[in-house]
Write a structure and sequence with these properties.
The chain has 292 residues and is mainly alpha-helical.
Length: 292
């Protein structure tokens, strides 16, 4: 564990890039205060559940979304949980923190007014990456809740760049819509930085742990790159593998690519297919519950 922490610390700068200079005039979208406080609380091992519950209940929107997610197929609880206190007790503090990040994203991300960008599709894809990353991480013995957050936030920068930074980012967007190259390759060509690095920078500004900063910022790297960094069999690898889950649902070729990646994590073809299939079903239910 200590060795992993040292590697994460070393790669955090690489994951975020030099955005203090690149985005000197760009205002970081702020994490809702209630979520910021909640994330601090859940990292403290001795935090009383009652205090966490009270904080969540102070924001009706956060309370409602957490209860919907806890009662969804994501957790598969045997009965309906009707109180925040019971929800926190059932799923645990770290998992509650991960779910709170989803609420922070819904409050932060605005829909770009652009042809070809569908915010509902964006949310569904983000949720699918999160759910699949969670399942893959559990199968390889990594932290499922961290993988869920990393999968969810992989593309958080994209709608922000398409609204607040469209004049800079539009070349990238229009080339990407042509479908001839991967988004991060176009970004490297046009800008010298990627949406993954921008997302990692946002995560760092929100005070999220290095493991999440790295998993978000490095999710576009290859298996070989992650193996060389000794991050492949970790939350970082699980999140990177899950990044292509939305494409894998619609394309046999993309499913084969995802399977090859997951095999490097020690997972079988059946385990990968099951993870994506389960994830798709869970996302369908979550989308209905959350109205997306």
């Amino acid at each position: 564990m200590l060795a992993l922490l040292k590697r994460l610390n070393r790669y955090t700068i690489m994951a975020t890039g030099d955005f203090e200079k690149i985005f000197a005039d760009f205002e970081v979208p702020s994490c809702p205060e209630v979520v910021t406080r909640l994330l601090r609380m859940v990292r403290e091992p001795d935090t009383p559940i009652d205090e966490v519950s009270s904080l969540i209940q102070s924001d009706p929107g956060l309370s409602s979304q957490l209860l919907k997610m806890v009662n969804s197929a994501l957790f598969g609880l045997p009965g309906t949980v009707s109180s925040v206190n019971k929800a926190v007790s059932f799923v645990g503090l770290k998992e509650i923190g991960s779910l709170a990040v989803s609420y922070a994203m819904t409050k932060t991300v605005r829909s770009p007014d652009l042809d070809g960008f569908d915010l509902q599709v964006f949310w569904r894809h983000s949720l699918l990456r999160a759910v699949v990353a969670r399942e893959l991480a559990a199968r390889i013995g990594a932290e499922p809740d961290d993988a869920f957050t990393a999968g969810l936030m992989q593309d958080i920068a994209l709608p922000i760049l398409l609204t607040d930074w469209f004049d800079v980012y539009k070349k990238v967007y229009f080339r990407w819509k042509e479908g001839r190259a991967a988004l991060h390759k176009i970004e490297e060509d046009e800008l010298s930085w990627t949406h993954a690095q921008a997302g990692a920078w946002i995560a760092r500004e929100w005070g999220l742990p290095d493991i999440l900063v790295c998993a978000i910022g490095l999710h576009v790297l290859s298996m070989d790159d992650l193996r060389e960094m000794e991050l492949l069999e970790s939350v970082v690898g699980a999140a990177a593998a899950a990044s292509d889950a939305p494409k894998a649902l619609d394309s046999d070729e993309e499913m084969k690519k995802l399977t090859r990646f997951a095999k490097e994590l020690g997972l079988s073809e059946n385990e990968v297919a099951e993870s994506v299939s389960n994830g798709s079903e869970i996302v369908e239910e979550l989308a209905k519950e959350l109205g997306i």
